[in-house]
Amino acid sequence: MATESRVVAGAARPTGRRGAELLRVEGLKTYFFTEEGVVQAVDGVDFILRRGETLGIVGESGSGKSVTSLSIMRLVSPPGRIVEGKIIFDGINLLDLDPEEMRKIRGDRIAMIFQQPTTALNPVFRVGDQIIETLEIHQGLKGEEAQKRCIELLSMVGLPDPQRRMRQYPHELSGGQCQRVMIAMALACNPELLIADEPTTALDVTIQAQILDLMRELREKIETAIMLITHDMGVIAEMADSVVVMYAGQVVEYADVQSLFTDPKHPYTRGLLNSMPVLGDEREELEVIPGTVPSLINPPKGCRFASRCSKRFEKCDQPPPMIELGANRRVRCWLYED
Ligand SMILES: Nc1ncnc2c1ncn2[C@@H]1O[C@H](COP(=O)(O)OP(=O)(O)OP(=O)(O)O)[C@@H](O)[C@H]1O
User: Fold this and answer.
1) What is the C-alpha separation between 2 and 159, in angstroms, rounded?
2) Are 261 and 273 within 8 A, CB to CB?
3) What pLDDT is recorded for position 8?
4) Domains, the chain
5) What ipTM does the predicted assembly reach?
6) SS3 sequence, 168-193?
7) pTM of the predicted model, to two decimals?
8) What is the whole-number distance in angstroms between the Cα of residue 189 and the centre of ligand 1?
9) Any residues with Cβ below 6 Å from ligand 1, and which?
10) How would you list the strands of the sheet with 21-34, edge to edge?
11) Which residue's alpha carbon is nearest to atom 17 within ligand 1?
């Protein structure tokens, strides 16, 4: 693959703390106060992300994945608001910071890349100027030094002819090239945490593989922890160490990637895996989970998945608690009560 070792230069951060807790989300609730009612988009989400780890967040459209990541970045805008919970990043509750302190963390220590890189880049500025601005603000680099580092970053992420590329505007680049620019911009801050929200969904399959490769290399070389949001179980299988499965604003299962794929517990997780194509598969048709995600304005009082679940029984009319099945294994389902 064309991305070998480009990330290494100038980016090493000798933390030596791989595996230590970096981010802890506790009881996070983010609601949207709309005219139609209160949308309980994220409703009591908990998880931990360790240094150097890739945590996959998976779930159908509307399950609350993006709102969770925007909440961590404190970028939820009205009518949305974080109403409860803690977001502990390296020992600091981000919800206690004033906007200026948060801006600094957002640029210096946490970076985010989005599904549509073209919308995240400013169309009226050259891509080089946008990276240089990030370097000036967050790394204190100036003039020639910032310029040199910008070229270095663009070649690290595999953009050929970086001198020319940096003078181009976003619309002059392809989707894959824009995503590389976004990653270069994220790298400019040498972040401890990279939040990647569907980073490859808008790209074709070959480019998708290159971008995933680049992210994997990042994680190996600079020990960036990655929170990877996707609806694609294939991407999860390839990239994640552990996985949070979200459904209708809640975490329904948490497991290491191996256990999730070999022994999924929640009926929803099983449904997701059964709807995934597998090489050499002899099934004539992929299974689909019947029904749709319930409205989050007045979500069901009991299990939110119950109306679509083939294992449903009376108890499911009550909200299931999160049940611990092991040190790193949790499921929100009455089937595992004992
Ligand atoms: N600005 C908003 N106003 C009202 N509701 C919103 C707003 N933004 C998000 N929501 C609602 O919050 C819920 C969670 O949305 P979110 O974007 O986090 O889902 P997602 O899992 O990331 O889906 P996708 O994969 O489609 O991006 C959805 O029901 C959505 O309609």
Assistant:
1) 10
2) yes
3) 34
4) 20-109+191-277+287-336 (3.40.50.300), 112-190 (no CATH)
5) 0.97
6) CCHHHCCHHHHHHHHHHHHHHCCCCE
7) 0.87
8) 28
9) 32, 34, 39, 41, 59, 61-67, 79-80, 231, 296
10) 37-50, 21-34, 80-89, 92-93
11) 66
